[in-house]
Design a protein that fits this description.
alpha/beta, 5 helices
């Protein structure tokens, strides 16, 4: 389960009341695979944005099933399976995003116990909000150490490790130029 799911979603949802005709209006949702607290929070956010939350026991077919980034077995028939990252970014951008437009919007498959990024120190740049949170979560889950600063040399006093990779959206900016200069993957 992605930690901070509720807090991350709430930070983008400034609505205190239900909005008729809101961003999610005329759409129905199932929420599956979350701890009770996060499920309740996600349900509140969907409702405040005009969406309808269905019970998994109902025979109605939901438009969307919202599941954690690492997925969940969706038994009921639904129109589309999306992640909490998709929901967070829809709220954040105040628009309905195509679930196929970003790999983080549909559940990912990860081999349990697999840590292919174990010796990697990543810095994430040019990403914000739910997208950044999901990338950091996923990288950590895969064994990477993720740090805010992109540094060439370790500084144990500041708890910084020498970066091995830079994750960014576009090949531009000072961090990208530093990665090229240091011959680090970006």
């Amino acid at each position: 389960m992605q930690s901070g799911t509720c807090a991350a979603l709430q930070s983008f949802n400034s609505l205190d009341t239900v909005v008729e005709g809101g961003l999610l209006s005329m759409r129905s949702f199932l929420i599956l695979g979350f701890i009770e607290e996060d499920e309740s929070c996600i349900a509140d956010i969907i409702k405040k944005n005009g969406g309808k939350v269905l019970s998994p026991q109902k025979r109605t077919i939901a438009d969307y099933a919202v599941v954690p980034l690492l997925g969940f077995d969706v038994g009921p028939t639904v129109g589309e399976v999306v992640t909490n990252t998709w929901l967070g970014m829809c709220i954040e951008h105040e628009q309905f995003l195509d679930p196929q437009s970003n790999p983080l919007f549909t559940p990912l498959t990860v081999v349990e116990g697999s840590t292919p990024l174990e010796n990697c120190v990543l810095s994430v740049s040019q990403f914000a909000g739910a997208e950044r949170d999901s990338l950091v979560y996923l990288a950590s889950l895969l064994g990477a150490r993720v740090q805010e600063f992109f540094v060439r040399k370790a500084n144990p006093k500041k708890d910084m490790f020498a970066s091995t990779h830079l994750v960014l959206k576009e090949p531009e900016g000072s961090k990208y130029e530093a990665a090229k200069k240091w011959n680090l993957p970006a």
